[in-house]
Amino acid sequence: PAAAPASPPVSAEMTPPPAVTAGAAPAPAAEPVANPCMREGRRPVVLYTQIYSADEQRTARDFLKLLEGSGISTPGIENVVSAAARRGSPPPLPWPRPTFIYHARRDGECARWLAQKFSDRAVALPLAASLQASPGVIEFWLPAQAKPN
Q1: CB atoms within 10 A of CB 75
Q2: Closest residue by Cα to residue 102 from 40, 37, 16, 15
Q3: What segments bear the compositional bias annotation Low complexity (predicted)?
Q4: Which of 76, 90, 136, 146 has the most C-beta neighbours closer than 10 Å?
Q5: How far is CA 71 from CA 40, 45, 46, 66, 84, in A?
Q6: How far apart are CA 10 and CA 93, in angstroms?
């Protein structure tokens, strides 16, 4: 059996999603561009994927499969509700739409590219300044019933 995916560097108990990025506007849609996530000579961008139930597992897995060869490290998929239950913590509030949270400004273009690649409803937002950032990390939060284009 495969090892459990690594936990994201930001705990699932973080401030509820709307408060995490209060005041941040969703990234505007852009024309398709070449993959801005390729990082010559640097460590790859790491995309941590969080789902809220087993129902999103297939959608998340299919999207990560599309990213193979893109230069993005995808260590696995975490069911944040199950993980919170195992810890005895309340589950995180779900994001209202597929959301890519980037930890460093230099990864914003990559997060916007990922959002556009996933769906026209997806957004890319910066991590709130009050939270500990891990440069090179993007979090993908996939709410229930979110479907790619």
Answers
A1: 15
A2: 37
A3: 1-12, 20-35
A4: 146
A5: 9, 7, 9, 12, 30
A6: 14
Query: CA angle 43-49-50, nearest 5°?
Result: 145
Report the DSSP pairing between strands 45-51 and 77-79: parallel
The closest of 114, 77, 75 to 98, measured between CA atoms, is: 114
Stated as kind and residue range, the H or E segment containing 81 is helix 80-87
Which pLDDT does position 144 carry in this prediction? 81
pLDDT of residue 32: 52
The Cα–Cα gap between 41 and 59 comes to 31
Does this model's pTM top 0.85?
Answer: no
Question: In this structure, are strands 45-51 and 72-73 parallel, antiparallel, or unpaired?
Answer: parallel
